[in-house]
Every structure is written in structure tokens, then in C-alpha cells.
């Protein structure tokens, strides 16, 4: 019996490795599907609201999708030129950062501090933060390259969404349990995404105004980064502040860089510690370690889009594990300490 249990465990682990390897190889296909699914989840409530008011399903879907496309197009038109300019200026900023770090060694020697320039440059990579910005924007560009495919997938998912409960009732012997589990999953993920999107939008707009008021170049790009990186839990808001502070330092000096840093600290405190917890309630139901690990894992598996969607993906996995008695213990391990005590 013990051998059978061990064999069963090893078989499950082997299957998990195969699935992860398959997802890694299929990332170019999986990423548009995931983006489409989560956009559709956000769009479902207004579509259902319109359908309840006797609006035909096709008209409701096309109307909501039209609003989303219009908003996305407007944002793209506003920031597209700024992104191109920023990416072209990126090598210049990296060179200036390297030169600023190189100037630290002589100053340190005057004060009698032993500083090895090569070691300092190895420890403090001046291009790391800017490279992260470039990679994130490039990943976003790759997703936008599939925008037509994503748009079609969103439309088809929304058209099928209203008929899904009837299909589940027909296909399964005990459909109510499946419907309840699916409803719980959709409700939690949709609530998280909706609140996070509004909070991220507020963060991005406020960061744009701050950078524009301080005279930092490319405020639209920096605001877009604050919007996108706010989806990354815990460290996203910190990562968004680094390029803004570095640009302020290179362009305006240390005083302005300090002012931008304090401004970002205030923005992140307001939106991340006051506004978002008020609407998110008990939070996402994941431990702090799992939040960080999910960021690393999904980022490695699916790239920058995986980092942005790490929390909703992990929430989905947790709810799926919680639906099965044999895997519920794993869902408990993924949750916070208060949930385990409860």
C-alpha cells in the first residue's frame, strides 16, 4: 500500500512537471488566452447587466467590447509616441547612470572610504531598473501584437458566458456544486481584478501628474509603468518608483529625485495601504510568501504578463485545489495564517 501511495505521488509530480514544461513551451499561445479570459471576466458584469434589461446578447457584448477597445485605443494613442521616445533614449540614460556611479569612487576616496569601482558597478547595476522597464514594455508590445486575436477571443467568451450554466447543468450529473464552485471562482477573481484595475488606474494617473509637475521627462510612460506594475503585489509599486527617481536624479538633481521618491511613497501609501484594503476587504486569501513565489513562478513561466496576472492565476489554482477533498490541504497551505486557524 505504501508503494502504491508513493507511486501515485511520483506520478502526480511527474504529470505536474510535464504540464509546467508544456505551458512554458506554449506560452506564446497561452498568454493571449489568459489575457482574453481575464478581460472577459471583467467585462461579464456589464454584459449581464445589459442582458437583464432585455438588450440582445450580441448587442450587449459588442457594446461593452467597443467601450474597452475605445479606451485601449485612446490610451495607446496617447502613450505610443512617449514609449518610442523613451526606448530610444534608454541607452543614453543607462550610460549617464554608469557615469554617475563611476563618479562616486573619487568622492569616496576624498573622504577616506575604500570603494572599489568595479565591485560597486557589479553590485549596483545601473541598467537593471531601466532594462526591467524595457522588458515590461516589450512584453506589453508583444501582447498588443495579438490584439485582434485577443479581441475575437473576448467576444466569443462573452457570447458563451450566458449559456455556460445551462451547458453545465446538461453535461454534469451534479451540476449545482460545479456551478457554485465556478461562481465563487468567477466572483472572487472578477472582484479582485476590478478593484485592482481602478486602484492601478488611480495610481498611474497620480504618478503621471506628479512626474509632470516635477518636470521629469516621459511622465506618460512613468504613469503607464505605475499603472501596470501596481498589478504586481508587494514590490510592483517599488519597482515603478525606481525609474522615475533615477530619471529625476539624472535630469534635475538629487533634490528633485528625493521629491519624486517622497511623492511615490505618498501615492503608494494612499492607494496601497488605505484605499485598496478598504475595498479588497480580507485581501486575496494568499500568504505573503505565496504572493512573492507566485510572482517569480508565473513571471518565469509566462513572462511579464505572468507577473501582472500572478495573483489572479494563483487565486484560481487555490480555489480549484479547495474544491477537491484530496487537495484541500494544499489550498490551506497557500492561504494566510488566519485562514488556517479558522
TrEMBL record:
Pfam families per record: AI-2E_transport
Localisation: Membrane
GO cellular component entries: membrane
TM region(s), chain numbering: 7-23, 29-50, 57-83, 140-159, 209-232, 238-265, 286-311
Coarse class of the protein's main subcellular location: membrane
Tagged with keyword rRNA-binding: no
Top-rank lineage group of the source organism: Bacteria
Bilayer topology term: Multi-pass membrane protein
Gene Ontology biological process: transmembrane transport
Keywords: Membrane, Transmembrane, Transmembrane helix
Family: Belongs to the autoinducer-2 exporter (AI-2E) (TC 2.A.86) family.
Protein name: AI-2E family transporter
UniProt source species: Litorivicinus lipolyticus
